[in-house]
Amino acid sequence: MAMAQDLLKKVFLLLAIGAIFVTFSELWFYRLGDDTNYFALTFIYGLIGYVALILLAVFHVRTFWGLFLAASVFGFMVEGIPVPVLYEAPPFSIVWTSLAWHALLSVAVGWYFFRKIMIEGSWLKAIALNVAIGISIGVWNAYSWSVLDGPEDAEIPVYDWVDTDIFVDHMIVSCLVFMAGHFAFDRLQPFSFQPSKWEIRGFAALTIVTYVSGSLIIAFPFSLLLPVLMALCLWGLYAGKNKGSGDKILNAMLSQRISLWRYPVMVLIPLCAIVTYDFFRAEQIELETNAWVALTTCTLATGLFVMALVKSFLTKPE
Q1: What does the domain layout of the chain look like in residue ranges?
Q2: pTM of the full predicted structure?
Q3: For the range 4-10, what are the long-range contacts, defined as Cβ-Cβ under 8 Å and sequence gap of 24 or more?
Q4: Rounded mean pLDDT of the chain?
């Protein structure tokens, strides 16, 4: 009975983190097609996210630097296994979007810092965080939803503004998915996550098989980047094992809940995003948001990745 309950909780955990990560990585990144299978997409993100959780547990990660390395593995897998984006234009494609969006925004911001501030921060910090996320989504999507694909040598992007009503529907649904992910994550507690040897071997085998049968062949020889990058991250995680003070990050995350009274604050995300998007659309503000977002997040993510590796190897056990 206990084994069945543990398995059910782990499946629930997989879907919960899948909902959180798919929101930041896909639903708030660009407009998906009408034929998108949202459950399948959530499940895929859950599977890859579960690998990151296994790494946090196996290497007893206690520091943000270890968390970022596990998040980097998540980012490299997202862009290097189901799709070959990681190999399209290295070295830029190594950072954007694997590190700059998936690791930095989806995992570090959308999961770790979001929950930390919503649980431990003041009401003012919680409100400010959700407002900032909402405005950022509105500004980003004013570009990503509206710019048409044109010639690569085009100097000025061509805009075709999507009606605000369509954006409203999308934001309501995506925010509900995000809230549901965090709510489900909260309902798991208290839960001591400890992957079995069979889980570790099973997910390792699944990763290898899907990579070898897909991206390795399709994008060869650039596809050889993935095992190199993952080995670098795993090496860093191994070197940083048990380093740092305090609780293991995953144990801490699975022992604290966002107060039910704070969930309404999350409504500020779609509200601010919609108001911002509609303002940009009404005023026909055409910013090349992708350029400065990529520049900012790539610089920050690269710095964090290098620092995470340095800290893992140089920090002495306490």
Answers
A1: 2-314
A2: 0.95
A3: 9/188, 9/191, 10/193, 10/199
A4: 92
